């Protein structure tokens, strides 16, 4: 077992490509491997057999390798921030950075058919960050659902279905990643609706940091919003029951005057599929892990 661990460390150290900025995905996988397949095994052996000099040295070697890889990430994100900060066209630089890294993820087949969060989410969380989020100020009202971020691969899939002429609403936008990335990738106008002030303020701070002029965040109850400007709407199950139905009534009124599309992710897809004025044209509404696309029929 000790010789196997030593070989794993040597092979990981020998992978020179993981030290290159562009190979964030491979580097993240290597860090996970060190954590869960090397250090955990060493600690397991230590627990059963007691510490010895060889195990101590192997653990220190693995920890130094992990720190070295994490240091590459620190330098990479610092370099990216400098690039963006020094540019007069921050959004263009941000889009170029994201598209370059997205190609790296796609090449390794990490995104298709995956469930939950992956390394792309880690990258996006670090890239689109601001100061720490303040404590939440409002208690959720009946029907509102605890906030969860949309997986990055779903945001990318959604963004590719929009064009610059669209007006996109993210209803229950949280800290604004969907609206921000939709705008960066597609150039569509993006509006986020969020009930919690601290989330909304954080989203505004990120949009301001990157000079995203065509992104707006509104701190309000989703039932009190005028959606008439929009033609594309997104819901990641931000509420259930009557509140969800109340918001859909507002969107149905918009659909009376023009065609609209509603994209959904999570359990709300099944509920929305039951509405006679909508047709699911992409995705399986019974699968909570896929993006669904609905078109209005009115």
Written description of the protein model:
By secondary structure, the protein is an alpha/beta fold. It has 2 domains: 2-82; 87-298, Vaccinia Virus protein VP39 (Rossmann fold), CATH 3.40.50. Helix content is 50%, strand content 11%. It has a 7-stranded mixed β-sheet with strand order 3-2-1-4-5-7-6. α1 packs parallel to α3 and α6 runs parallel beside α7. The longest helix has 33 residues, at 53-85. The mean pLDDT is 92.
Total number of helices: 10
CATH-defined topology of the largest domain: Rossmann fold
CATH superfamily annotation of the largest domain:
Vaccinia Virus protein VP39
Residue windows where pLDDT falls under 50 for at least 5 positions: none
- Oligomeric category: single chain
Decide which structural class fits the backbone.
alpha/beta
**Shape category:** elongated
Strand content: 5-15%
E-strand count: 7
Question: In the CATH hierarchy, what is the architecture of the largest domain at level 2?
Answer: 3-Layer(aba) Sandwich
| Percent helix range | 40-55%
The total domain count is 2
Mean pLDDT: 92
Main sheet: strands, sense, barrel: 7 strands, mixed
Order of helices and strands: HHHHHHEHEHEEHEHEE
- Rounded to the nearest angstrom, the distance between the terminal CA atoms is 66 Å
Name the strands of the widest sheet in spatial order. 3-2-1-4-5-7-6
CA gyration radius, whole angstroms: 22 Å
Q: Briefly, what CATH class of the largest domain?
A: Alpha Beta
Keywords:
single chain, 298 residues, alpha/beta, 2 domains, seven-stranded mixed beta sheet
């Amino acid at each position: 077992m000790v010789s196997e661990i030593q070989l794993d460390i040597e092979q990981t150290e020998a992978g020179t490509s993981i030290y290159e900025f562009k190979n964030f995905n491979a580097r993240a996988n290597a860090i996970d491997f060190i954590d869960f397949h090397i250090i955990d095994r060493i600690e397991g052996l230590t627990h059963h057999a007691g510490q010895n000099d060889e195990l101590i040295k192997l653990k220190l070697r693995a920890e130094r390798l992990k720190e070295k890889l994490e240091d590459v990430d620190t330098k990479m994100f610092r370099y990216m921030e400098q690039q963006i900060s020094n540019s007069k066209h921050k959004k263009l630089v941000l889009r170029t950075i994201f598209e370059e890294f997205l190609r790296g993820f796609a090449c390794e087949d990490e995104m298709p058919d995956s469930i939950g969060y992956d390394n792309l989410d880690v990258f996006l969380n670090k890239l689109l960050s601001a100061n720490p989020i303040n404590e939440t100020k409002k208690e959720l009202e009946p029907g509102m659902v605890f906030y969860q971020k949309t997986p990055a691969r779903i945001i990318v899939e959604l963004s590719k279905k929009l064009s610059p002429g669209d007006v996109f609403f993210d209803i229950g936008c949280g800290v604004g990643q969907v609206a921000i990335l939709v705008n960066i990738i597609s150039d569509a106008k993006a509006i986020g609706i969020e009930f919690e002030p601290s989330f909304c303020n954080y989203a505004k701070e990120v949009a301001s940091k990157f000079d995203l002029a065509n992104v707006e965040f509104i701190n309000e109850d989703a039932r009190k919003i005028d959606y008439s400007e929009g033609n594309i709407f997104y819901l990641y199950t931000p509420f259930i029951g009557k509140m969800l139905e109340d918001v859909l009534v507002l969107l149905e009124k918009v659909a009376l005057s023009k065609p609209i599309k509603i994209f959904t992710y999570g359990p709300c897809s099944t509920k929305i599929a039951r509405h006679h004025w909508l047709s699911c044209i992409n995705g399986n509404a019974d699968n909570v892990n896929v993006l669904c696309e609905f078109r209005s029929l009115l």
